[in-house]
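= Tokenised fold =
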Amino acid sequence: MKVPLPEGGSRILFWSSGAYHSMVSSRVVAVRDWQGKWHTSGFSEATSMLADIEPSRMTLERSLSSEEGRALDQLLADPCLYASPTFQRNPNIVAGGAEQTMEIETPGRRWISSWFGRRTPQQAGVINQITR
């Protein structure tokens, strides 16, 4: 995304890129504003590598409900999220797959983790909340 990152109390950056017969690339930013409300903004593009097909694009712009925001805050407060390795790889994936990275920045910490085909349940929970 070629836009300035919004400022807020906490921020999550998530990006994913994978290819096999098609390439899919996604970027999502989630920001918790100073009032405690979470907002997401994202972009995804899929391109076929086998045919001359126009890429499909999708944007994501939404504010999380109070309930979704509380669930995300609980996931971010879980120490198991930050105890995961900084890089994980699934050795069973020999072709295709997606490499994904998540960066979490809160007033008390900054954490970055990447994975290829394998993520923890805590990482999956955060991604599910910000990419709906």
Observations:
- The longest helix spans residues 66-77.
- The mean pLDDT is 85.
- The helical segments are 66-77, 79-82, 121-130.
- The first strand starts at residue 10 and ends at 19.
